[in-house]
Design brief:
With about 525 residues, this protein is α/β, with parallel strands linked by helices. The chain has an eleven-stranded mixed beta sheet, with helices on both faces. A seven-stranded parallel beta sheet has the order 4-3-2-5-6-7-8, covered by helices on one side. The longest helix has 23 residues.
């Protein structure tokens, strides 16, 4: 689903007006949708408070108040500013509300009065602030938001919960915790990122009459991943096929005491649908990983006395790639000096530079030691057919900043990394993000806290590698991979509860996740399900 940044939403309104759609009509449509949502959220009736700021959100609220009165609901409007401050479409609708005799009053500014008065209402409509809010809230808005968050009834926010950053999903320092958010035309990224999704409650995107092409040519493309789009990315599984049809993935992973990471990555590759997976590990681990995962081929690579890969392994890996379609590298490799030499030598190989690949874990930590080498490769025509999958700490090392800085602006961090390194980048974590060097980025809504355990990223590495091996491009492999990985975790959480999930169980649920998205898209059977 296409999303709109706050700037794009404002430009969409301007373009709609230029195309002949008056903003007054857009506001009328928006307010009518809010009133209809109130009827769905609180069907039993009871008085409604509509809290209106002086901007467009307040104007929407004033329209909603009029429609609610028409439906027979008792309504009170609180104004956040003097009446003369309401101008334009909001001012016109304030005058209309007065003409209808709708009760209007200045919003109280004492906490005790706010709490006492709010308790009288069955539902509150939050129309205080919208996409135009910038920076920390000041009083009395901060006071009002705090009072709304003490209110125990349902809250319906218009477009965005007041105080929430519509692009980053952060509150500075507080935002309304809504029961339901009605947003217009397009969803806003901040409603689906965390913590914004927790503030927004249930999100419903409703039409208000915007022309269908108002986002075209507006720079960055922002999306929310959905099952139908993911299903379309998945390769077909024709009846007349064989293991060679679905690609051969090479997984380079593991070191002494880290064999499990290698096994999990290979398991993710197999459960992700690759026809063949070769797990290449330090030679002393080969027997161990072969016993742990008999479905995978194994290869013992030259190793150091410490049980890590040395520089001699780079030549062997390059030779192995000659008969494989994709590479997954990083889980459990370690960052010993000899391994760093191996990795830097591998980056120089044209077989690696042109191979669809997913880099994770220690491959990213090693990359962070000399990021300029990959940046130089990225400047070549066509860039790199790679997917990088850092968690916030790894992303911080890649970008040379703190983890807190990365988490404060996850969309900015993932887009910067994609632009710098010339590949598709996944920023893992709750609501993982996917970014393309072109500026396109997406939010993944699947996954749950039960997946916060060691090894989950290793499975994702293998899954993305398997999709690359099956012929998906880097964007499609990354987007489908994070969605299916999170959905597999959700299926396990449904069956077992939200804690104690094993990484191998999530890997084993990947086929069921794939089947789920195909069925939801109506493609079961058409793609081998």
């Amino acid at each position: 689903m296409r999303l709109a940044t706050t700037a794009q939403a404002r430009e969409a309104d301007r373009r709609a007006e230029a195309a002949g759609m008056p903003t007054r009509i857009l506001m009328e449509n928006a307010g009518a949708q809010v009133a209809a949502a109130v009827a769905r959220l609180a069907p039993e009736g009871g008085p409604v408070l509509v809290f209106c700021g002086k901007g467009n959100n307040g104007g929407d609220g004033l329209v909603a108040a009029r429609h609610l009165v028409e439906r027979g609901r008792p309504v009170q409007v609180w104004l956040a500013a003097p009446e003369e401050a309401y101008r334009g479409d909001a001012g016109a609708n304030l005058a209309l509300a007065k003409g209808w005799g709708i009760p209007l009053a200045p919003a109280p500014v004492e906490a005790e009065v706010l709490d006492r008065e709010l308790a009288r209402y069955a539902l509150v409509v939050d129309g205080l602030l919208g996409t135009g809010v910038q920076g920390p809230l000041r009083d009395p808005y901060r006071l009002w938001v705090a009072a709304l968050n003490r209110y125990t009834g349902p809250i319906l926010s218009i477009d965005l919960p007041s105080g929430l950053d519509g692009d980053r999903g952060v509150a500075e320092p507080e935002a309304v915790r809504a029961t339901w958010t009605i947003t217009f035309g397009y969803g806003k990224p901040g409603l689906y990122l965390l913590p914004g999704a927790d503030y927004a409650g249930r999100v419903e995107v409703v039409p208000i009459g915007l022309p269908p092409d108002v986002l075209e040519g507006q720079g960055e493309v922002v999306e929310l991943l959905e099952s139908r789009a993911v299903a379309q990315m998945l390769p077909p599984r024709p009846a007349e096929s064989h293991k060679g049809t679905y690609g051969h993935l090479l997984v380079v992973a593991g070191s002494r005491n880290m064999a499990g990471a290698a096994v999990l990555a290979a398991r993710g590759g197999l459960r992700g649908g690759a026809g063949l997976v070769t797990l290449a590990v330090p030679a002393s681990l080969q027997r161990q990983v072969a016993a742990a995962l008999p479905e995978a081929l194994t290869y013992g690579l030259p190793e150091t006395e410490a049980g890590t890969l040395g520089v001699e392994a780079a030549e062997v890996v390059a030779q192995l790639l000659a008969t494989r379609q994709a590479l997954a590298i990083g889980p459990g490799l370690g960052t010993a000096p000899e391994t760093a030499q191996f990795f830097q030598a591998l980056l120089e190989r044209p077989e690696v530079q042109h191979c669809p690949a997913v880099l994770d874990a220690d491959a990213l930590n090693l990359l962070a030691q000399a990021p300029e080498r990959v940046e130089a490769l990225a400047r070549r025509p066509g860039g790199l057919p790679w997917v990088l999958t850092p968690h916030p700490g790894e992303m911080a090392r890649l970008l040379g900043r703190s983890t807190a800085d990365v988490q404060a602006d996850r969309p900015g961090a993932v887009r910067e990394a994609a632009a710098r390194f010339g590949g598709v980048v996944v920023l893992k974590g709750a609501r993982s993000l996917v970014a393309h060097p072109s500026g396109r980025w997406a939010i993944n809504p699947t996954g749950n806290p039960g997946m916060a355990t060691g090894g989950m990223g290793d499975v994702l590495t293998g899954l993305v590698g398997a999709l690359l091996a099956q012929g998906l491009g880097p964007w499609e492999a990354a987007a489908a991979g994070v969605y299916l990985h999170g959905l597999a975790g959700d299926l396990q959480a449904e069956a077992r509860g939200p804690a104690g999930l094993l990484t191998s169980e999530v890997a084993d649920a990947l086929p069921a996740a794939r089947r789920r998205v195909l069925r939801e898209a109506g493609l079961n059977g058409a793609r081998g399900d």
